[in-house]
Amino acid sequence: MTTPIDNIQETVSVNDEQWMAQALELARLAAQKGEVPVGAVIVKDNSLIGAGGNSPIGHNDPTAHAEINALRRAADSQKNYRLPGTTLYVTLEPCLMCIGAIIHARIQRLVIGASDPKSGAVYSIYNIGNDNLLNHSLQIEKGVLAQECQDLLKSFFKKRRAEHKVNI
User: Fold this and answer.
1) Which of the residues 10, 17, 67, 93 is marked catalytic?
2) What are φ and ψ of residue 88, in 5° steps?
3) Which of 59, 66, 79, 149 is most buried (most C-beta within 10 Å)?
């Protein structure tokens, strides 16, 4: 018997790595601005239609996660709030808010870099989007450039902790 978690793949294609590399660049830009380094890109027919980095601090907006920013730009570029036939690449496993928006946008495929053991809502803590309980399910792949994604997050938080110690 298969479980919903069995639907998550760990296959990597060259295109997946190329698009995740672009998401990583957005994550690095977010880190330079003091944001948690998460980046996301949305692709349709092998063309970029939306991209975003984390910006909740800079925009004073708790919803300004990388995925939400990318979804907004993709929906605007497509003139549609639904994004069927698209793939969203994100450097960190989405949270509850983001996976909900991804499902509402009808993203077809979600490609994840690093797992989020503290708030991941796709497979780490919750199993949303591939549990067949909603009216839309996703093809989910994980682990694309995972080490690079994890290393970026670890170095960001290590630096932040060191800066916090100095300021105490």
Assistant:
1) 67
2) -105, 125
3) 66
Query: What's this model's pTM, rounded to 2 decimal places?
Result: 0.90
67 is catalytic: yes
Exposed, middle or buried, 56 (CB in 10 Å: 0-12/13-18/19+)? Answer: middle
Residue-level pLDDT at 1 = 37
Task: Report the pLDDT value the prediction gives residue 165, as an integer from 0 to 100.
Answer: 74
One-letter identity of residue 137: S
Looking only at the bridges linking them, the beta strands covering 47-53 and 39-44 are: antiparallel
Contact 98, 7 (CB under 8 A): no
Handedness of CA 125, 127, 129, 134 (dihedral sign): negative
First-to-last alpha carbon distance for the chain, in angstroms, is: 54
Walk along the chain (168 residues) in steps of 10 and give the mean pLDDT of each run. 41 81 98 97 97 98 98 98 98 98 98 97 93 90 97 94 73
- Report which of 125, 67, 69 is spatially closest to residue 99, judged by C-alpha positions: 67
Q: How far apart are CA 144 and CA 44, in angstroms?
A: 18
DSSP state of 5: G
